[in-house]
Amino acid sequence: MLCYNRASPRSIFITWLAILNRLYTTDRMQNWGLNCSDDCVLCSGGKESVEHLFFACSFSATIWQAVLKKLGIHRRSAGLAYELGEAAKASKKTGCIAKLYVMCFTETIYSIWLMRNSVVFRNHVKSSEYLVKEILFRVACRSSDELRSRLLQD
Ligand SMILES: [Zn+2]
């Protein structure tokens, strides 16, 4: 899924770290003995972990739902294990939606991580609508003409 992914190398790297649970989320920092709040900065409604930050968080869930809807997939995100499984299956397929799904999976995780860091380090919040547009723009920029036209269909 990561090797045959046309998403940006940075997003693939961050996704790889997320899958391995190697990102500096506050649950991990607390395990190292650092005294920091582990409240999610995106929703303030949960403890920050990979599973919460990227999937269970209400802010992230809104983004996933909008991105999946753009691909014609009408459901909410179902968590890391499920979405990773779907992305792995999609990476073995050749259809437009499968290729776009793999790229969107990676770019969405990357964008949520950038958003989290923007809030933590700069106290700068973007709307979920803006973030969805940014994700789709990143995917479109790295797509073939065929994929781009499929992505831009309504
Ligand atoms: Zn949250």
Write structural notes for this entry:
It is a single chain. This protein has 154 residues and is an all-alpha fold. It has one domain. It is 64% helix and 0% strand. The chain has 8 helices and no strands. It has helices spanning 9-19, 26-31, 50-56, 58-70, 80-91, 96-122, 128-141, 145-152. Helix 1 (9-19) packs across helix 6, helix 3 packs across helix 4 and helix 6 (96-122) packs across helix 8. The mean pLDDT is 93. The structure holds zinc ion. Zinc ion binds at residues 40, 42-43, 45-46, 52, 57, 59. The site of zinc ion (ZN) has 8 residues, from loops.
Write the layout of secondary structure elements.
Elements (H helix, E strand, L loop, with lengths): L8 H11 L6 H6 L18 H7 L1 H13 L9 H12 L4 H27 L5 H14 L3 H8 L2
The site of zinc ion (ZN) has 8 residues, from loops.
Short account of what is shown:
The protein has 8 helices and no strands.
Largest sheet: none
Q: Outline, from the CA principal axes? A: globular
The distinct ligands, each listed once, are: zinc ion
Helix content: 55-70%
Strand proportion, as a percent range, falls in under 5%
Q: Mean pLDDT, nearest integer? A: 93
Distance between the termini: 26 Å
Tally the helices: 8
Number of domains: 1
Taken in chain order, the helices and strands follow as HHHHHHHH
> Which class of secondary structure composition applies to the elements?
mainly alpha
Q: Total strand count, please?
A: 0
**Radius of gyration using CA atoms only:** 15 Å
Low-confidence stretches: none
Keywords:
154 residues, binds zinc ion
